[in-house]
Amino acid sequence: MKRVYYITIIMISIMYLGFAVKTDEQISDEKIDKRIDAILSKMTIEEKVGQMTQITLEVISSREGEASSLVIDADKLKEAIVDYKVGSIINTGGAANTLDDWQEIITSIQDAATKETRLGIPVLYGIDAIHGANYTLGATLFPQAINLAASRNKEIVKEGGSITAYEVRASGIPWNFNPVLGMGREPLWARFWETFGEDVHLTTEMGKAYVEGQQGKDISDKTKVATCIKHYMGYSVPKNGKDRTPAWIPERFIRDIFLPPFAEAVKTGAFTAMVNSSEVNGIPAHSDYHILTEILKGELNLKGFIVSDWEDIIRLHTRDRVAESPEEAVKMAVMAGLDMSMVPYDYSFYEILVKLVKDGEVPESRIDDAVRRILLVKYMLGLFENPYPYTELSDGFASEEFTEANLNAARESITLVKNENNILPLSKTSKVLVAGPTANLLSVMNGGWTITWQGNNEELYPKEKHTILEAVQEKIGENNVIFREGSSFEEDINSAEAVKMAEKVDAVVLCLGEPTYCETPGNISDLALPDAQLMLAQELAKAGKPIVLVMVEGRPRVINKIVDHAEGIVVAMLPGMEGGRAVADILFGDVNPSAKLPFTYPRNVNGYMTYDYKPLEVFDVNEFNPQWSFGHGLSYTEFEYSDLKLSGKNFSVDDEITVSVTVKNIGDREGKEAVELYITDLYGSVTRPNKQLKAFEKINLAPGESQEVSFTLNSDDLSFIGRENTRIVEPGEFIAAVADLQAAFYLK
Ligand code: GLC
């Protein structure tokens, strides 16, 4: 008997010790669960539904004009927080606020939430900080995602995410509606520039880096925020290219291409997700139980919650007509898995859902699940400990160090795609004509989500930042620069005069592209660059001086009619607030360009193909003939690739495959190079892409310097979604390719 007794004592001790030595993290998770249970058990149905209700700042405030400051309306604030128990507020109230104003706004809101309500649950404030804290005046505004992807520099993406998190938190806001993880595979799409481009591996890696930068190890850190991966999913490939129009994506393609970036982001710790505003295969995403609950919450195990996009629950009734009443729309969305409604202008969602629960139409268990998820994020953010702004962060806001990081990101994000006769870099003693509609504006380099939603109020941009023209003037002296716009985006202005001026200079810097736009207002029906701009280029070419074309745009506008007129072409896309300086640094050689296109630049407006095209797309008369392919990018130096080696010839599914290559800088100046490994699966049970990016690393080499770069792949990197819609690996022959080197290997 004694022996059994001792064993029991020993076992209890081990169990106690086991509990006692649990990491803080485990105890805090359990502690948080207990705190959520405790508060949930006290909540009324109204209080629970209030947590699921999100309104925009405009509902509780007023602002005279975009430039004036915003005023919180105390009565409307009380109505929202006390009467309707709103748990989340978003947006900017029409235009960016100063850092001080934001801290005041958030303080007023949290005062109401924590001091005037029965349970004192803090409000979760959310904002779009898409390329920096773009709704806080003076913030560090980075290149847009399409540019970050062109940099192929994960560290730059992570650092940009971290700086953005700092400046968003400094504004008192702990939740950012970013990153966009849809892929840019439809160049007409108005939100193409919000993506990391067309490739699933590049998007996955850049999305992961961004989430790591934004969230760090612990989102309660006062310099970190919770991310919101979006727009889940299949939003980025509208069949007719127009934002918020139907996409048709077979489940096999969804799982093969569109799901992986979201899966990796959830694995990396992303807490929230925002739903695709549109429909896939005839099913509005906001009503799709399969993708929201079965996949995102089930297979991917999202820990936090799912928020709707703008007004998209009621639009199930008013627009999509899959719900015959507002009540049916709310029930359909909540039962599909939506946890929070971005209503955002009124309290209809609150009133309808309270009634649906009381009438037994929506089980309270679904509400409890949603509220538990929302409270988890609020606890993990530390809002119950401190919901107020950390005003001490103001000191580091928009610091010189942040600005330097931004300038570096811009420099590494601009792609040199053509450099005939080494026209670039231009000499600093050149006399140049700067022309074109994107030469002397800051807005065109930043795009949407900049100070205002559309980003098109140039008056509100910081006067101290440089346009391309101003940066060129600073670089080579105003006396050496003539400026003639020549044309607006759509019309001739003074092209004849510009041509006359061109005869007086050594070279022309022609800045073409797009005005700023955001979301549906940016819809177009013709990807070709407008005629006025094409004609300006054609006229300027008659002056017989070398032309350097700078494309400042959110999507790759077709320019096949003028490519031959330009000896140098730079695809700048949306390089952010330091873009002017970065373009000038590259044009005049202070920076050696190192970016590579994250998308395939179309030659024609029709017949768009991505680089990972299928065999029959190049069969018979069909060909892949883009203006420039995904992965194209030039340097002012030259890199020689040699000695491609594999760690074997035959591999089993459990083996790791190491691919190494030597890269040498054989030019006369230092340069950065993104080394990219592509894999071709020669045969498969479904048609396989001609090649797919599987790994990349950016290195820096001095003239004459060599470096061996190694990549390690496993069978998951060779997998794909098969005919059964499940991820599989098949034996067979594969090709590993780096630059112009290839090596075959076999998977047994
Ligand atoms: C918009 C966008 C979404 C954004 C949200 C809040 O409609 O689709 O990306 O986060 O509304 O501004």
Question: Could you walk me through the main structural features you see in this protein, from its secondary elements to its overall organization?
Answer:
With 748 residues, the protein is α/β, with parallel strands linked by helices. The chain has 3 domains: 43-396, Glycoside hydrolase, family 3, N-terminal domain (TIM Barrel, Alpha-Beta Barrel), CATH 3.20.20; 414-612, Glycoside hydrolase family 3 C-terminal domain (Rossmann fold), CATH 3.40.50; 639-747, Immunoglobulins (Immunoglobulin-like), CATH 2.60.40. It is built from 20 helices and 28 strands. α3 (45-51) crosses α13, α8 (200-215) packs parallel to α9 (251-268) and α15 (400-412) packs across α20. The protein is globular and about 75 Å long. It starts with a helix and ends with a strand. The structure holds alpha-D-glucopyranose. The site of alpha-D-glucopyranose (GLC) has 9 residues, from loops.
List the helices and strands and how they pair.
Elements: H1 2-20, H2 24-42, H3 45-51, E1 53-56, E2 61-62, E3 71-72, H4 74-83, E4 88-90, H5 99-115, E5 124-127, H6 145-151, H7 154-170, E6 175-176, H8 200-215, E7 226-232, H9 251-268, E8 272-275, E9 279-280, E10 283-284, H10 289-299, E11 306-307, H11 315-318, H12 326-336, E12 341-342, H13 348-358, H14 364-380, H15 400-412, E13 415-419, E14 432-435, H16 443-446, H17 468-476, E15 481-484, H18 495-502, E16 507-513, H19 531-541, E17 547-552, E18 568-571, H20 579-587, E19 639-646, E20 650-651, E21 657-665, E22 671-681, E23 692-701, E24 706-713, E25 720-721, E26 727-728, E27 732-738, E28 741-747
Parallel strand pairs: 1-4, 1-12, 4-5, 5-6, 6-7, 7-8, 8-11, 14-15, 14-16, 16-17, 17-18, 20-28
Antiparallel strand pairs: 2-3, 9-10, 13-18, 19-21, 21-24, 22-23, 22-27, 25-26, 27-28
Helix pairs in contact: 2-14, 3-13, 3-14, 7-8, 7-15, 8-9, 12-13, 15-20, 17-20, 18-19
The structure holds alpha-D-glucopyranose.
Alpha-D-glucopyranose is lined by residues 91, 128, 177, 230, 274, 277, 309-310, 519.
